[in-house]
Specification:
Layout lengths: L7 H8 L7 H13 L1 H8 L8 E5 L5 H7 L5 H5 L13 E6 L2 H11 L6 E5 L10 E7 L7 H14 E12 L5 H16 L12 H10 L3 E6 L8 E7 L7
Parallel strand pairs: 1-2, 1-4, 2-3, 4-5
Antiparallel strand pairs: 5-7, 6-7
The chain binds S-adenosylmethionine.
Length: 246
């Protein structure tokens, strides 16, 4: 087994709740959790502390909550946990915010068994209250809103975070040439299929994303997060002063 892949037992456990919802929800969950390096990267590097209050902005059908929810007390997953990875973060409580009602409905139905460890709010990140959080995760979402709205969401995320909180923000690097063009093209197709009707995407070069976060007072560490894909995605680990690097 590759240490860069989600162990099969864990993938099975995390995606099983979507099976009763139909083929689309289940296959989508398996494809995304099994193939997107962001999910493995977060676990592998220990970027989510145990028992954290996690805000997942633009959470889709709640895959991160499903993955984290499957870590609690599941012996199969524990046995197959890759040795080089950081310890599994147990007891994380996820609040997901998502614009599309169909995704929210799927998340709520699939993860009802997790109780208060996974709750979902249907709403626009530009106006929905974030509530308090230790970790905020925004994976491939901010470029759907205009530049001023992006800055405002990030300012509100900073205000929502605990003093030692962390923002995990994945963005495309608009300066990355062909891989960025491929990312954008795939994104446009997928968002159209998912029911969005967006006139344009609001992308920035990586340096500009980093500066935006630094101006807000975050210390920023970029981690390439596109291994095994043709994309130009980077995970920005943005820490407030005083937070300990894992
Ligand atoms: C590319 S998907 C990423 C989903 C999830 N973060 C992941 O990595 O699997 C982007 C998500 O952001 C949601 N989204 C877009 N604009 C939003 C907004 N203004 N407020 C909340 N969610 C939004 C979309 O509906 C979609 O579910």
């Amino acid at each position: 087994m590759s240490a860069d892949k989600l162990p099969a037992a864990l993938l099975e456990q995390a995606t099983a709740p979507y099976r009763p919802l139909g083929k689309f929800a289940w296959h989508f969950a398996r494809g995304k959790l099994g193939g997107d390096p962001a999910f493995t990267g977060l676990l592998q590097r220990g970027l989510i502390p145990p028992r954290a209050r996690l805000l997942d902005i633009g959470c889709g059908q709640g895959l991160l909550a499903a993955l984290l929810g499957s870590l609690d007390g599941h012996s199969g997953a524990e046995r197959s946990w890759p040795a080089p990875w950081a310890a599994a973060p147990a007891g994380v409580q996820v609040h997901g915010i998502e614009l599309m009602p169909r995704d929210v409905e799927r998340a709520q139905k699939a993860l009802d068994h997790l109780g208060p460890r996974a709750r979902f709010t249907q709403g626009d990140m530009r106006t929905t209250d974030f509530g308090p959080a230790d970790v905020a995760v925004i994976l491939d979402v901010l470029h759907y809103v205009d530049y001023a709205a992006q800055a405002d969401v990030l300012r509100r995320v900073k205000a929502a975070l605990a003093p030692q909180g962390t923002l995990l923000l994945r963005v495309g690097d608009a300066a990355a040439g062909l891989p960025f063009k491929i990312s954008n093209w795939v994104d446009a197709v997928v968002t159209f299929v998912r029911g969005h009707r967006l006139a344009r995407l609001y992308c920035r070069p990586l340096s500009e994303w980093q500066q935006l976060l630094r101006d807000l007072g975050f210390a920023v560490e970029p981690i390439p997060m596109h291994a095994g894909t043709p994309f130009a995605n980077v995970l920005l680990v943005a820490r407030l002063p005083g937070s300990a690097a894992p």
